[in-house]
Write a structure and sequence with these properties.
Blueprint: H1 2-6, H2 39-43, H3 50-58, H4 60-63, H5 76-91
Helix pairs in contact: 3-5
Bound molecules: heme C (HEC).
């Protein structure tokens, strides 16, 4: 789901067209180092919790007018699954620390 719907622009551990998503939940919007956000998103001061993410994915422009993510997820069920996935990626250790046990 994440790869299919978001992977064209985002990755968990790399900035692409959109900013990386590692540890998104609980983070302030517009703060990934090295990513060139729209001034609107950077200035929003929003915290990415499940509620704000749901609003964002439903209609980014309604949540933060002037932002630059031109993509929506219309299905509430899809949003729920995506937010669950982003939450799980947020709580797991960063990839550098996630080595295979010996
Ligand atoms: C067409 C490209 C595109 C697609 C597809 C896309 N995004 Fe984005 N996304 C962006 C861009 C560009 C930004 C930066 C927006 C800005 O700076 O205003 C962004 C920003 C975000 C942010 C804010 C991150 C932060 O650090 O504040 C979140 C959260 C996000 N996207 C989630 C998603 C999810 C989840 C999906 C899949 C359902 C998705 N996006 C699909 C382009 C995309």
């Amino acid at each position: 789901m994440y790869e299919a719907r978001c992977g064209g622009c985002h990755a968990i551990d790399a900035n692409r067209v959109g900013p990386m998503h590692r540890q998104l939940l609980g983070r302030t919007a517009g703060r990934v180092p090295g990513y060139d956000y729209s001034p609107a998103l950077r200035a929003s001061g929003l915290i990415w919790d499940a509620k704000n993410l749901d609003l964002w994915l439903r209609d980014p422009e309604a949540l933060i007018p002037g932002q630059s993510m031109n993509y929506r997820v219309d299905s509430a069920e899809d949003r729920r699954l995506l937010i669950g996935y982003l939450g799980s990626a947020s709580v797991s250790a960063p990839s550098a620390a996630r080595k295979a046990p010996n």
